[in-house]
Amino acid sequence: MTKSLILVGVGGQGTILTSKILAEGLLQLGFDVKMSEIHGMAQRGGSVNTQIRFGEKVYSPIISSGEADVLLSFEKIEAIRYLNYLKPDGTLIVNDYEIYSLPVLTGNEKYPKQALEMLKSTVPNTVVIKASEIANNIGNIKVQNMVLLGAAVKRLGLLDLDWISIIKDYLPERFHELNIKAFNAGINEA
Amino acid sequence: MKKIMTGNEAIARGAYEAGCEVAAAYPGTPSTEILENIAEYKQIYSQWSVNEKVAVEVAGGASIAGARALAAMKHVGLNVAADPLFTLAYTGVNGGMVVVTADDPGLHSSQNEQDNRYYAMHAKVAMLEPSDSQECLDYTKAAFEMSEKYDMPVLLRVTTRICHSKSVVNIGTRQDVGVKEYKKDVKKYCMIPAFGKIRHHIVEEKLAQLRDYADETPLNRIEWGSRKIGIITSGISYQHAREVMGNDASYLKIGLSFPLPERLIREFAEGVETLYIIEENEPYLETYVKSLGLNCIGKDIFPICGELNPEIIEKALKPEKSRTVYALDIPIPTRPPVLCAGCPHRGIFYALKKYKDVVVTGDIGCYSLSVMPPLDVTNTVICMGAGISAGIGFEKAFQQAGKNQKVFGCMGDSTFFHSGITGLVDAVYNKSKLAIIILDNRITAMTGHQQNPGTGKTLSGEAAPIIDIQQIAKAVGVKDENIKVVDPYNLLETQEALQKAYEATEPFVIIAKRSCALLKEVQKNRANLKCSIDTDKCTQCKMCLKIGCPAIAFKDGIMVIDQASCNGCTLCMQVCRFDAIERTGE
User: What confidence score (pLDDT) does residue A105 get?
Assistant: First the structure.
């Protein structure tokens, strides 16, 4: 049975690195894994998504609507944008964090209030993680991706793997301590 | 050994294992990481070339000299490189030669979605089309073998979803083929008409042999399932089709996309009740199948425009299946890509926006984002180089119409080296009044910070001579007084240069020189530089919002600057009329 996971956020938030670590971990767990990301222009503050599919044998790297077991959103509005990907009984993990896009900053478009409340009332399995707040408390907002990774790994029931050593493989040594702290905080939070 | 790799990483690995000796490319999404990964294999000499034509010629020369050689580019890059490719098809190779074309169905990061499978047919060279990372590795190796066996360059065609998707790959070891002996052979390698005529006959003979091979090779394979539905497909479309149809269909998976296997296609068509062709963009396979007099369904139900995905295929082949999806029916803001906070391009476009009566011909790079509001200053974006050359055309047409309208042509530093120099020479030679702006951010930024002839470093990170854009402008004849080098963070200096260019009646060159704000070194040096707004002085005139900086927001009734993303470029400070913005840090 193939499982699907979609990570969404804003260019620069670290969704791609998070996906790479997840994909590597799934490979080590013995799954066939495919991961698809689109980068390029979307890097410049645009909406980004990466998709991971794993199971015994995976063909397409692309998730269809209503098929994602987990939607991991690094930003509130992006959770709404990609909500159609989530399975009816799927889990939404959402970072309680707002990033205003340029049309909002310039006042041409509005950022909806109550986004989190609306998500919670729509999706029964919603897990809200204050990843940016936790990351800030640890010492750097940039490690919010590792907080979310920890939360996702816990919720996917994949704790039975040495994720710390994979994180170490993907990051320079000077960032290890901070990122591992963030990852563990994410596990506890979820 | 099993590894998870992107298609691009696997192509690099395939080149390494095949004993590739020389590789060249110009960066372009989605192909860029092929050369970046090849550069990690120190046994291969690799380089960024100034453009794709040069890259293919470098690879072609290396191949004739006896080395296995590879050139990689995005789809539109092959337009630039088409000239050498078509004639290298005649000369053939010595060491195997592979040209990678990375197409971009869905235009994730491109100006068009041309289908480069037609190039194989047009240039008369074999084409392979992998459908996952394992095949990227295997087919790259097969392409080198095939190139030597059939004495022709081989095209390896991938798409964004192949390049940027990761899947599991079994890696092997490097084959030590070395560099073959080179023997002078003018009848083979000097394509003057007398020899070219002979070579054309040889090309046709080789293609005939390849057609036989196409029916035999395991690169094309039939996977029998239910015979009610037969699907001919290739590349990523194969993966999507299998995902949706499983064993409810049979598949003819095409790996060698040119020349196509006539006998195999006939055999497959006879074995199934209804034949479908599933392919992205153009009806390349479909046209061929129909030319054999076979009935099939393709673009009648599958779109030509955009990427395919499992859902589109499911809707077409299993229309009865419905999906339950969540929906939150509230308007949400769009999130278009924007110039980054502290982007040096912002200053020049903000200053240029003041001129309401000018035309701005743009080019390919981050600065194409100047098309978007609130900057909104670019009139055309066509291809690499057109920022200058199309500007010349505009200016000449206005002249013919008796209009005295100023034209500004913009392009980046890497683009200037790619195909701007020829336009600049054309402007000087043809006495154009074009004002040219080179947005010199000291790197090839859009594709993720690749070195170029202006940066002083090579692909492998070695020191290299810095080619000076100002000296080039002088050398081709732009007068000293018509060349201005400005810091686009300095609005006044930028405005003065623009005004001079606006008034000029001769070719004028402005070089806006300031490193990309995302360069690691720049980020480190400017880490403590921040602008902030004094809310007591701020009148909320919102002038600072007009520069379109993503760090500046009107939030909860006040103007604020996000301290995490601001790099203290001070552009907002310079446009504020009330001295309400100050910069801190060193």
Answer: 86
CB pairs under 8 A between A and B: 173
Spatial separation of the C-alpha atoms in residues A152 and B364, rounded to whole Å: 38
Q: Write down all domains in chain B, each with its CATH number in brackets.
A: 2-216 (3.40.50.970), 221-317 (3.40.50.920), 345-521 (3.40.50.970), 526-584 (3.30.70.20)
Identify the segments of chain B with pLDDT beneath 70. none
CB within 8 Å: B332 and A77: yes
Which residue in chain A is spatially nearest to B324 when comparing CA positions? A66
Q: What number of residues does chain B have? A: 586
Chain A: nearest CA to B233, how far in angstroms? Answer: 14
- A148 contacts A128 by C-beta, under 8 angstroms: no
Banded model confidence at residue A41, pLDDT cuts 50, 70, 90: low
Phi-psi region of B530 (alpha: psi -120 to 50; beta: other; left: phi over 0): beta
User: DSSP characters for A118-152?
Assistant: HHHHH-SSEEEE-HHHHHHHHT-GGGHHHHHHHHH
Complete DSSP assignment for B151-172: TS-EEEEEEHHHHTEEEEEE--
SS3 at position B228 = coil
B446, burial (CB in 10 Å: exposed 0-12, middle 13-18, buried 19+): buried
The alpha-carbon gap from A157 to the nearest alpha carbon of chain B, in Å, equals 21
Instruction: Give the single-character DSSP code of A85.
Output: G
What is the least distance, in Å, from the CA of B361 to any CA of chain A?
20
- Using the predicted structure, report yes or no on whether residue A39 has a pLDDT greater than 90: no
pLDDT tens digits, one per residue of B474-499: 999 999 999 999 999 999 999 999 99
pLDDT for A45 equals 77
ipTM over 0.90: yes
pLDDT at B462: 96
The CATH T-level fold of domain A3-99+114-189 is Pyruvate-ferredoxin Oxidoreductase; domain 3 (3.40.920)
Between B243, B326, B369, which is nearest A60 by CB?
A: B243
CA B345 – CA B283 distance, rounded (Å): 40
For residue A107, the model assigns a pLDDT of 82
Interatomic CA distance for residues B147 and A141, integer angstroms: 51
Percent above pLDDT 90 for chain A:
85
Contact B310 A64 (CB under 8 A): yes
Give A-chain residues touching B372 at CB under 8 angstroms.
Answer: 102
CA–CA distance, B367 with B548 (Å, rounded to integer): 13
Q: Quick check: B242 and A106 CB within 8 A?
A: no
Other beta carbons within 10 angstroms of residue A52's beta carbon come to: 29
User: How far is residue A41's CA from residue B46's CA, in Å, rounded to a whole number?
Assistant: 26
Residue B1 at interface with chain A, using a CB cutoff of 8 Å = no
- Listed by start position, the domains of chain A span 3-99+114-189
Percentage of chain A exceeding pLDDT 70: 97
From the list A129, A23, A35, A118, the residue with the least C-alpha distance to A75 is A129
Q: Which two tokens stand for residue B540?
A: 């909320």
Q: Distance (Å) from the C-alpha of residue B168 to the closest C-alpha of chain A?
A: 7
Cα gap B127→B453, rounded to integer Å: 32
Helix runs in B353-457, H state only = 386-400, 413-415, 421-429
Contact B310 A62 (CB under 8 A): yes
